[in-house]
């Protein structure tokens, strides 16, 4: 059964013929090539585009290595364009193409060409490249499968599906694997032999053990506030390593650049400003995170938080960690301030949602604890608590909505329930 990725197809359709380079980014094996060369190409054919007007080059395939030469690929593409009708140029793993900036600029000057490219890292979206393509590049970031997409092909109920998704994540190939051994081997090997190897080779890293240790530290700390000095202290005290803070900072940037992790900044809701460090890091795919730790640290509370974070980002929201201050008097009557955390502040245009990942609220004390930070926010934007339990969607007298993680992830309009 085919996994439909309708959101991303629609993103491409909405950008057709806009005179910009459509750049599809995402972590390796997230489905970029399938989106471009199967889903989108099939759409073009269904719309009556002749196959001869679809020029596709997969630069990571050995048979296409010659096209990594900028002059060779340009000559080939120009030879394929034989009339004034629209041609669709699909290039996979464009970062493998030498001088790709100049190639893409040249393609953009062909009046009857609509260009789509994919890449597995953001090297070609670095500051220099963004300057080069300012106003002419249009990024579409594709995530691993959401839980709803995952359940399209899962053979079982949502509860077993959640358990599998939380453990093995949403990389599309895992859905076709029948045994736990296959999934564990695939994810473990993928992280070691593809992701880390790519980073080490691309950036000529010599301290490979320190990079691996850093990944383990970040994987163990999802959902927890951290910063470079704290990580550096862990290296010194636990790992007996003298790696510098600058090197740690650089390695983290490499991991972000490869879309393995993503940073959530802290935002002062009342003060309307960003705070800076410490920050939180989440993994683009929880299966990869679990594989990195040998599937030994499977804390459902933290993984559920990571999954909710990824879901919000896949829906197009910018997501921060919210901070609000509560003022109260201590036992002596002296005024004191206490910082409370809102797991996620999700923004998209004029929309904003405050979201708590609570896992379980078994009693009144826990409910009060989870609602405390939300009650400090006095604006009119919606406040939501997501729990693991199967519950009816409810709204209390303070306007706080509580829903199950299944409703949140499986219903497209869950934020409006």
TrEMBL record:
User: Under what name is this protein listed?
Assistant: ATP-binding protein
**Taxonomic source organism:** Mordavella massiliensis
Record InterPro entries: AAA_14, DUF4143, P-loop_NTPase
Cite the Pfam families for this sequence.
Answer: AAA_14, DUF4143
- List, for all copies, the residue spans of the domain called DUF4143: 197-356
Q: Does the keyword ATP-binding apply?
A: yes
The major lineage groups are: Bacteria, Bacillati, Bacillota, Clostridia, Eubacteriales
What GO MF annotations does this protein's record show?
ATP binding
Q: Where is the AAA domain?
A: 19-151
Q: Which UniProt keywords apply?
A: ATP-binding, Nucleotide-binding
